[in-house]
Write a structure and sequence with these properties.
The protein contains 13 helices and no strands. By secondary structure, the protein is an all-alpha fold. The chain folds into three domains: 98 residues, Four Helix Bundle (Hemerythrin (Met), subunit A), CATH 1.20.120.1810; 56 residues, Orthogonal Bundle (Arc Repressor Mutant, subunit A), CATH 1.10.10.10; 74 residues, Arc Repressor Mutant, subunit A. Helix 4 packs across helix 5 and helix 6 packs across helix 7.
């Protein structure tokens, strides 16, 4: 079905999203750029992890990119989104294996990029563009964005960090996630892959975050910038859809 958004450029769409916060436009932009998800996921196809799992995690990165993109910076959305998606995939592998390490070169660039961003902000009296930071450091715009993503990942508190970072003296890992009786009604990961692919993007992402990445509803809500109650409703609806699809088989 066509809409008035079909004739608008990505820049115009993001400008309207910033002004309106329209959730339907947000979903439209996510769907419009889903090709980036598989484009990036193919780079990790030989990682040993299920390709569809990587695609689902990449969707989370795309959603984050749509939510954080600022068209006024003069950067193309794809230029911003690809490093953001890669950052989410790397975080997934890091959480999965705890063996992945960011190269020292990228760690150093991340530190330099943040310092350059602060210097330029003081000099320009505004936030610099990624291109301006890249020019300051003699690197590409894409490298700056990737370095910023690396910095964001390593600012996260470890879920194994102890009482100093908890509300009641327990480590986050002891509080993260809770049992859901509906989970027992799902099939194995391989068997459910085709059903997940039929779900709307946000519902699919929520199920992946809840059941594949073992994230609590609260954590999912924070990542997607929606309330925990909304996460619960979308999760329930997604599970209902999957049950209906299974019954039809």
């Amino acid at each position: 079905m066509s809409s008035r958004w079909d004739d608008m450029t990505s820049k115009e769409l993001f400008e309207e999203l910033l002004g309106s916060g329209d959730p339907k436009l947000r979903d439209h932009l996510i769907n419009k750029h889903e090709g980036l998800v598989r484009h990036v996921a193919r780079e990790y196809a030989e990682s040993g992890e299920a390709y569809e799992d990587i695609v689902s995690v990449a969707h989370i990165g795309l959603i984050n990119a749509v939510d954080r993109f600022d068209p006024s910076r003069g950067t193309k959305f794809a230029t911003f989104a690809v490093p953001t998606i890669k950052g989410e995939i790397r975080r997934y592998f890091r959480d999965l294996t705890w063996s992945m390490r960011v190269p020292r070169r990228m760690q150093e660039l991340s530190t330099k990029a943040r310092a350059a961003q602060q210097r330029l902000t003081q000099h320009l009296h505004r936030s610099p563009t990624y291109a301006e930071v890249g020019s300051e450091l003699g690197v590409s715009e894409e490298q700056v964005i990737e370095a910023m993503e690396v910095g964001r990942q390593y600012e996260l508190v470890s879920i194994e960090d102890g009482a100093n970072h908890s509300e009641n003296g327990a480590a986050y890992i002891d509080r993260a996630g809770e049992s859901d009786p509906a989970l027992g009604e799902l099939l194995s990961r391989q068997e459910t892959a085709e059903y997940l692919e039929r779900l709307p993007t946000r519902e699919r992402v929520i199920l992946v975050m809840r059941y594949y990445l073992d994230m609590s509803q609260e954590a999912v809500g924070e990542r997607l910038d929606i309330s925990q109650m909304h996460v619960s409703r979308l999760q329930h609806r997604a599970l209902q859809r999957m049950r209906q699809m299974m019954k039809k088989q």
